[in-house]
Design a protein that fits this description.
The complex is a heterodimer. Chain A is built from no helices and eleven strands. Chain A is an all-beta fold. In chain A, the strands form two sheets. In chain A, strands 2, 4, 5, 9, 10 and 11 form a six-stranded mixed β-sheet that branches. In chain A, strands 1-3-8-7-6 form a five-stranded antiparallel β-sheet, with no helix packed on it. In chain A, a hairpin with a 4-residue loop joins strand 9 and strand 10. Chain A starts with a strand and ends with a strand. In chain B, 0% of the residues lie in helices and 56% in strands. In chain B, strands 2, 4, 5, 6, 9, 10 and 11 form a seven-stranded mixed β-sheet that branches. In chain B, strand 5 and strand 6 form a beta hairpin. Chain B is globular and about 40 Å long.
């Protein structure tokens, strides 16, 4: 059973602060990792993808991956009230022989940015 | 452009009705997915089509019937649904069903079964 674990929150941070979201996964063979943002009643929107150990930055967002620790995180700098949403960690894993992969989602972390 | 479209946006149906959900993408993606999402839960995979062939069926009840008429279109036919099937139904697509492919989601269809 492939598992992805996230702290469900809610995580509350003041406006302008750094929000730190964490995720661990069980399948050591996983090769790609994604963060999706989902506003209430809307569909998931891709925020970041990361494939290699280390940091990947895109604007106010930084994804961090440590495959040895099976850990991926998302940092949001200068948090804004518009960042208030549920953040889903997703890990792509599957059967390399069959070429069949699928996303396993964590339960999501609800982030509230307080003005 | 990473747009996946879904119709209708909202659907209300009775337990004896037959209806269909539609999904379309024009990104040349060869993998398409149906997910079901209940409130405060993550998306739950239902079906995957790869190169227009059913690749994964996650033991979904037969009252849900997927169809992939061509590489751009994905349908989900609904028949004799139960109230517990009420949920947000999400379509997604990716270049292929590979280990590093990114899935892009459509806006979803909010389904209510009375």
């Amino acid at each position: 059973q492939k598992e992805v674990e996230q702290n469900s929150g809610p995580l509350s941070v003041p406006e302008g602060a750094i929000a730190s979201l964490n995720c661990t996964y069980s399948d050591r063979g996983s090769q790609s990792f994604f963060w999706y943002r989902q506003y209430s009643g809307k569909s998931p929107e891709l925020i970041m993808s990361i494939y290699s150990n280390g940091d990947k930055e895109d604007g106010r967002f930084t994804a961090q991956l440590n495959k040895a620790s099976q850990y991926v995180s998302l940092l949001i700098r200068d948090s804004q009230p518009s960042d208030s949403a549920t953040y889903l960690c997703a890990v792509n894993s599957g059967d390399s022989g069959a070429g069949s992969y699928q996303l396993t989602f964590g339960k999501g972390t609800k982030l509230s940015v307080i003005p | 452009d990473t747009e996946v479209t879904q119709t209708p946006k909202h659907l209300v149906m009775g337990m004896t009705n037959k209806k269909s959900l539609k999904c379309e993408q024009h990104m040349g993606h060869r993998a398409m997915y149906w997910y079901k999402q209940k409130a405060k839960k993550p998306p739950e995979l239902m079906f995957v089509y790869s190169y227009e062939k059913l690749s994964i069926n996650e033991s979904v009840p037969s009252r849900f019937s997927p169809e992939c008429p061509n590489s751009s279109l994905l349908n989900l036919h609904l028949h004799a649904l139960q109230p517990e099937d009420s949920a947000l139904y999400l379509c997604a697509s990716s270049q292929e069903q590979g280990s590093t492919d990114t899935q892009y989601f459509g806006p979803g269809t909010r389904l209510t079964v009375l």
